[in-house]
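Sample 1 of the test manifest.
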Amino acid sequence: GAGVSQTPSNKVTEKGKYVELRCDPISGHTALYWYRQSLGQGPEFLIYFQGTGAADDSGLPNDRFFAVRPEGSVSTLKIQRTERGDSAVYLCASSLIPVRGGELFFGEGSRLTVL
Amino acid sequence: DAKTTQPNSMESNEEEPVHLPCNHSTISGTDYIHWYRQLPSQGPEYVIHGLTSNVNNRMASLAIAEDRKSSTLILHRATLRDAAVYYCILRDSRSNFGNEKLTFGTGTRLTIIP
């Protein structure tokens, strides 16, 4: 597809379970970002990849959250031992060049509900 | 990143121009001004960005004050599809690998009245 693709679009899980969220960026985009958005708030930065490496993971809230991008394309956000407070929309974005001058293209997000 | 201040909400009539303000009094000389918008149940969408001069594109215009301490996003003729949350974001343009994120605030919720 032409845009950023995120799967699943909706995920309902129970407290304590493990969750993986997938992001397929626009082909050729070297930069990839994960954000989290709670109801009524703006997106909150989690982690940024340049190629395969995490260049900035300062937004990850704790060690239950981890993200990988092994081949510099698809990325997976992994959440261990989910808590009810993890419920949010998780957004992925990609860009062709670093965002200083270029625009970010966002997916529609994965809505995570932890019961 | 320097902070921006936007009104929580605004209303405008359909087919009229809309001026969305943003204050950024602590902006540095190397900060770009970015605008994104988020339609209901969608991810944010790039609108426009600029550094010093006013900018125009097919979606909107960006008017930047001479002292750069404020800017205004202008939608020339609002439609119902422009109802969204609009975010004004500053981003340092200096090459600083590893510091590329955009920091979103709560934005301005724009309601279009038919």
